[in-house]
């Protein structure tokens, strides 16, 4: 009486499975809207704080500095919130629901790909807030809507790839506290020791050397080019290569941890 | 030879976690149909065994087959045939009951319309229609369990693993879950159930394996098991601890019965044949001037089964 009768439906493919898990992530946003706090508060805080605090000192005027800073703040905001992906995974595995997903006959990485697709929605909200606020403060993207669109698209690709580091760490971390600590240790140097705030040429040579190989620097250079209408093929290419490498390394690590979680 | 494959067959299956032998060489043959119960205390290895059979964990050594398929090399096939209800509710607390079932129905291949139909059908079958649009975190323990089992049968599984489905439930919710399990079996599914309660295994299972320290220490039908333990247990609570010794002596020597002391210093447990044997025993004790504060006659508890099978109580086992 309770059991299903008739033929069993056909198994679904990898893309459908990922989209269904993406839908789950959106449902979670609907039910727990507080989780959008970080994607809204962070960008507003960062944009206002850095524009008005550094603007006068670094570029002579806040409006001029904003043209330089905003693409970087956009990148920083989204890169910072990628760590919440790890927090979400860490939360999920401590509840039993992951066991159920793992015992389903679907393409296994879809659980995580779906979660990351849901995160892409959060990143888009964040990006819109930063750009919107920037425009109010006087930011003028010379690359127009198309330039901004591609810059955000590139940022989403990079963040999606970077998130796989957090999903791996999400499986290993014993607690959320250790996860937060670890992510700050990684994210602070990555975002601050970059060309987001100042031109690396003003830095001591050892720091400049680090900044120049920092993936975030490449990302910000590529985004600035796109936003200001002078796309730089080299940096875009390098960002895409870095992204592919991140997925190539941390994707399999995450899946190994996912399959072998006790 | 046209033989129906066994639901589960394991050969000396083991799983170690570092030095801990969670499952230490279990060989089982479980036929299809009905409920098979795995009885054991906390930490006996029940969950580890189930997780291996549900393909969530690879064995350290030994082998296992579920519905005739190997649990290591044929995971995908097994996943299409079985479903697992873990010990901790494996539903998403942030979503509503309806969304949880919709999510699973879609993942299992139902189209949008049919997914909704199946989800609503299950919610009504499990008495959750009124709570369909509430987040699961607002559900009671019993409701959560029912949703959890509903989530396991979105498509018809050949075999269902239920890991301690009634642990922590109140008696009413427990009865509801029992009814669900009975109707699943009546509908033709095989259920592998783990439990800490002999009573539960007795109510539901056709056959029971008692496991302890990762090993099977007894296997049989509930009546065989109870027979090996003694079908009735009389528990006597003596009012004065100083008189326990005296009561013990009377029962063991004058009446020649098997009597056991417990971690509770006031309690004596005695295997008795029947009610009249128990009454005469009580008469004997009271006429010796020993005051009995209360007594009960009933089925042996898991602790007493353990005592009979291993000579140790569950508590002593845990100290080891």
Name its key features:
heterodimer, A: 262 residues, elongated, B: 320 residues, alpha/beta, Rossmann fold, 2 domains, 6-stranded mixed sheet, 14 strands, 38% helix, 27% strand, Transport permease protein (chain A), membrane (chain A)
Set down the secondary structure blueprint.
The complex is a heterodimer of chains A (262) and B (320).
Chain A: H1 14-31, H2 37-59, H3 62-81, H4 83-94, H5 97-102, H6 110-137, H7 144-172, H8 176-192, H9 205-213, H10 215-227, H11 233-260
Helix pairs in contact in A: 1-6, 2-3, 2-6, 3-6, 3-7, 3-8, 3-10, 4-7, 4-8, 6-7, 7-10, 7-11, 10-11
Chain B: E1 8-17, E2 20-30, E3 34-39, H1 46-53, E4 61-66, E5 69-70, H2 75-81, E6 82-85, H3 97-107, H4 112-125, H5 141-152, E7 159-163, H6 171-186, E8 190-195, H7 198-204, E9 207-212, E10 215-220, H8 222-229, E11 232-238, H9 244-254, E12 259-261, E13 267-272, H10 275-287, E14 292-298, H11 302-310, H12 314-319
Parallel strand pairs in B: 3-8, 3-9, 6-7, 7-8
Antiparallel strand pairs in B: 1-2, 1-4, 4-5, 9-10, 11-13, 11-14, 12-13
Account of the protein in words:
The complex is a heterodimer of chains A (262) and B (320). Chain A is mostly helical. Chain A has one domain. Chain A contains eleven helices and no strands. In chain A, helix 6 crosses helix 7. The model of chain A has no long low-confidence stretch (mean pLDDT 88). By secondary structure, chain B is α/β, with parallel strands linked by helices. Chain B has two domains: 177 residues, Rossmann fold, CATH 3.40.50; 67 residues, Alpha-Beta Plaits (2-Layer Sandwich), CATH 3.30.70.100. Helix content of chain B is 38%, strand content 27%. Chain B is built from twelve helices and 14 strands. In chain B, strands 6-7-8-3-9-10 form a six-stranded mixed beta sheet, with helices on both faces. Chain B is globular and about 75 Å long. The chains are: A mainly alpha (262), B alpha/beta (320). Chains A and B meet through helix 1 and helix 5 of A and helix 2, strand 6, helix 3, helix 4 and helix 6 of B.
């Amino acid at each position: 009486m309770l059991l299903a009768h008739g033929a069993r439906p056909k198994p679904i493919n990898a893309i459908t499975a990922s989209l269904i898990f993406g839908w789950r992530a959106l449902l979670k946003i609907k039910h727990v809207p507080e989780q959008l706090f970080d994607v809204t508060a962070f960008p507003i805080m960062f944009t206002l704080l850095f524009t008005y605090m550094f603007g006068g000192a670094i570029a002579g005027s806040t409006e001029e500095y904003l043209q330089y800073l905003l693409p970087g703040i956009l990148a920083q905001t989204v890169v910072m919130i990628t760590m919440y992906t790890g927090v979400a995974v860490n939360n999920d595995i401590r509840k039993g629901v992951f066991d159920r997903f793992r015992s389903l006959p679907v393409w296994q990485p879809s659980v995580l790909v779906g979660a990351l697709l849901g995160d892409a929605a959060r990143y888009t909200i964040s990006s819109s807030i930063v750009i919107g606020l920037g425009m109010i403060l006087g930011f003028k993207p010379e690359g127009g809507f198309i330039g901004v669109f591609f810059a955000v698209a590139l940022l989403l690709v990079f963040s999606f790839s970077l998130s796989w580091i957090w999903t791996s760490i999400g499986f290993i971390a014993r607690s959320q506290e250790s996860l937060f600590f670890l992510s700050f240790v990684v994210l602070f140097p990555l975002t601050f020791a970059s060309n987001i705030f100042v031109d690396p040429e003003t830095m001591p040579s050892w720091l400049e050397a680090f900044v120049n190989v920092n993936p975030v620097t490449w990302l910000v250079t590529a985004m600035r080019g796109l936003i200001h209408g002078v796309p730089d093929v080299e940096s875009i290419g390098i960002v895409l290569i870095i992204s592919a490498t991140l997925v190539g390394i941390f994707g399999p690590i995450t899946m190994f941890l996912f399959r072998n979680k006790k | 030879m046209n033989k129906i494959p066994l639901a589960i067959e394991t050969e000396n299956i083991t799983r170690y976690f570092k030095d801990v032998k969670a499952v230490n060489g279990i060989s089982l043959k479980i036929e299809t149909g009905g409920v098979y119960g795995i009885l054991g205390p906390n930490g006996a290895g029940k969950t580890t065994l189930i997780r291996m059979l549900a393909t969530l964990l690879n064995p350290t050594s030994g082998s296992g087959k579920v519905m005739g398929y190997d649990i290591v090399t044929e995971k995908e096939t097994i996943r299409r045939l079985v479903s697992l209800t873990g010990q901790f509710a494996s539903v998403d607390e942030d979503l509503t009951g309806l969304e949880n079932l919709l999510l699973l129905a879609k993942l299992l291949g139902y189209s949008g319309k049919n997914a909704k139909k199946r989800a609503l059908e299950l919610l009504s079958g499990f008495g959750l229609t009124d709570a369909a649009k509430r987040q699961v975190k607002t559900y009671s323990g019993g409701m959560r369990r029912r949703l959890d089992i509903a989530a396991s049968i979105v498509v018809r599984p050949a075999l269902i693993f239920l890991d301690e489905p009634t642990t922590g439930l109140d008696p009413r919710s427990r009865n509801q879950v029992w009814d669900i399990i009975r109707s699943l079996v009546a509908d033709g599914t095989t259920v592998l159930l783990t439990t800490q309660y002999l009573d539960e295994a007795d109510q539901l299972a056709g056959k029971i394996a008692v496991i302890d320290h990762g090993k099977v220490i007894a296997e049989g039908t509930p009546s065989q098991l109870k027979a090996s333990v003694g079908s009735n247990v009389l528990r006597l609570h003596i009012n004065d601890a100083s008189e326990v010794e005296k009561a013990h002596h009377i029962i063991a020597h004058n009446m020649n019965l098997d009597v056991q002391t417990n971690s509770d210093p006031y309690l004596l447990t005695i295997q008795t044949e029947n009610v009249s044997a128990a009454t005469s025993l009580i008469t004997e004790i009271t006429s010796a001037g020993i005051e009995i504060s209360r007594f009960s006659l009933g089925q042996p508890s898991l602790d007493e089964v353990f005592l009979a099978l291993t000579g140790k109580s569950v508590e002593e086992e845990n100290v080891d």
